[in-house]
Each structure stands twice: as C-alpha cells, then as structure tokens.
Amino acid sequence: MIHVAIPAYNEEQRLAATIEAARSALSEAFGAEQVAISVDDTASVANAARARVVRLEENKGKGRALRELLYRTDEFVVHENDVVLLLDADLGTTAREAVALVKPVVDGACDMTIAAFPPATRKGGFGFVKRLAARAIEGACGFVPRSPVSGQRALAAWVLPKIEPAFAYGFGLEVAMTLLACEAGARILEVETGMRHRETGRDLEGFLHRFRQYRDIRRVLRDVRRDTKRNRSQRGEDVTR
C-alpha cells in the first residue's frame, strides 16, 4: 500500500489538482487499490476530491499536521511493506511525478527518496539556508542534495518511526528527517523531478519564511548532532570526529 500524506492550509486553489494528479499517476503505476490519500485541510475541496481528511482545530504548522496525519492510528495504518509518500498541497498537476519518488523505494533500491526541483522561475533568497542544510546533510550522509529542504519524499515503512522526532522542528523538519533517517542507516536517494510549487520571492513574506527556516534548521543541527554524538558514545564509537 502507498499511503500519501498531504498537509494543507489555505490551498483551496491547488489542493484538488494535487490530489487528483497524485492519485491518477500512482494508481496507473501501482494499481488503484494500492493508493490511500490522507489530507489535513480546512476546506471542503479535499472531501470533494475523495481524500480522507484529518481536521485540526487550528493551524500549528506543517510538522504538527504531518504528525496528526501519520500517527492517528484510526486514519493512517502503515504495515511492514508499505510506502509512505509526503507531498505538499500546492504541487498541482506536477504531483503526478510522485511516481518517480515511490518507485525506487518499492523496488528496494533505497529507503527514502527526496525530490529535487528544477531551478526557480523567480528570484527568491540568496541560497544561505539551502547551503547550510546541504552542508549538514553532506557531513552526515555523504552527498550534497540539490533540494535539501524539499518536502516531497517517499520512505519505506520502517523509516517512519525513526524520523518521528523531526515533526517537532517546524520549518526545519525536512532537514531533521534526512539527518534522522541517515543516522538510522536508511539509504537516501535524491530524484530529479519537474515538480513545482508556489515560490517565495524577495519580499517581506519570503524573507520571513527563510528566517524561520534558518532558525529551525539551526535548532535541528544542534539537537540532532548532540543526540547523534550521544548515541555513538553509547555504542562505543569515536565521538571526536
């Protein structure tokens, strides 16, 4: 079974297209009976698009929404050979490329995939947050991702409990997911896609978003590095490196 989790807030314009594109592409590739889509949403469009909806009383961020989607056992039951797919609500028709994320996990080629996005169509920030995230991931996992803060991911069922702490890190949750999966021994693969979503620009909203990312990623690096060092020490490994 492929379980799709889509956190959504104020995405009425794109959510239905995202759900339908993901469902159509995944059903064609893996069989309709193998696809279950769950959405955290405040609008009726998710119900209209035949997705299972988990409603939150208030918006407490993407991490909280994903935690509710993934760990409400009556809504989202993951078995040993299942695959979990995380998608943003604003992908629209490009959500059909989710197949490229799921296939390597289904085939056993890796344990988690991350979607690499094409270059932005508008000027955003100056790349500082992405470079910080990419350097941290390179140091932990040995590869430099093009899209280190991409939220589009597929993962094997066994990885899900390993990354659960990541959902407490707000705008740093994607980096936390990668670092925790790497620490757990997951094989991680970045996949080139043509996915696109709403882009933040060089305006007040965009800079505030990137500041929050920077703040939360710094918190991730502090906590994950501390915990990794402690775990290595408990295993008797050299922690001076």
Protein described:
The protein is α/β, with parallel strands linked by helices. The protein has one domain: Spore Coat Polysaccharide Biosynthesis Protein SpsA, Chain A (Alpha-Beta Complex), CATH 3.90.550. The protein is built from seven helices and seven strands; from the N terminus they run E-H-E-H-E-H-E-H-E-H-E-H-E-H. The protein has helices at residues 12-30, 45-48, 62-71, 98-106, 128-141, 173-183, 204-234; strands at 2-7, 35-40, 52-53, 83-86, 112-116, 153-156, 188-192. The protein has a seven-stranded mixed beta sheet with strand order 3-2-1-4-6-5-7, sandwiched between helices. Helix 2 (45-48) links the parallel strand 2 (35-40) and strand 3 (52-53). Helix 5 (128-141) runs parallel beside helix 6 (173-183), helix 5 (128-141) runs parallel beside helix 7 and helix 6 (173-183) runs parallel beside helix 7 (204-234). The radius of gyration is 17 Å and the shape is globular. It starts with a strand and ends in a 7-residue tail after the last helix. The model has no long low-confidence stretch (mean pLDDT 83).
